[in-house]
């Protein structure tokens, strides 16, 4: 009975390995076809994904683009730049919308000097 079990088990494992190999081969052919069709965009993603790895070293390295600290600093710089730009735009709009100094201060009153 033990021999029958081992034989059946080995057959199933062999069949699984053959099927797995065939699926992986089909997958690799499909990836090559997609990369050829769309350029290296897909390959680049695969390489980046492979470079990240599961060790987390890119997350721990503060100079890496995947690092939370790097992303935070980049986002903070963008926010500061946007805040400064909007502040300058607001100042410019305020300056443009202010009446000239010679204009009368009360509505409907004619200025004292015309010339």
Summarize the structure.
By secondary structure, the protein is mainly α.
Describe what you observe in this structure.
The protein has 115 residues and is mostly helical. It has 2 domains: 52 residues; 33 residues. It is rod-shaped, with a radius of gyration of 34 Å. The N and C termini lie far apart (119 Å). The model has no long low-confidence stretch (mean pLDDT 76).
Range of strand content: under 5%
Number of helices: 4
Rg measurement, Å: 34 Å
Helix content: over 70%
Taking the alpha carbons of the first and last residues, their distance comes to: 119 Å
List the helices and strands and how they pair.
Blueprint: H1 2-38, H2 41-52, H3 57-60, H4 68-97
What key attributes describe this structure?
115 residues; rod-shaped; mainly alpha
């Amino acid at each position: 009975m033990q021999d029958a079990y081992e034989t059946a088990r080995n057959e199933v494992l062999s069949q699984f390995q053959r099927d797995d190999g065939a699926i992986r081969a089909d997958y690799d052919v499909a990836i090559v076809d997609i990369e050829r069709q769309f350029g290296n965009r897909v390959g680049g993603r695969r390489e980046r994904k492979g470079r990240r790895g599961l060790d987390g070293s890119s997350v721990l390295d503060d100079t890496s683009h995947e690092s939370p600290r790097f992303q935070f600093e980049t986002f903070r710089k963008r926010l500061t730049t946007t805040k400064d730009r909007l502040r300058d735009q607001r100042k410019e709009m305020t300056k443009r919308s202010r009446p000239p100094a010679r204009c009368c201060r009360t509505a409907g009153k004619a200025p004292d000097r015309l010339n």
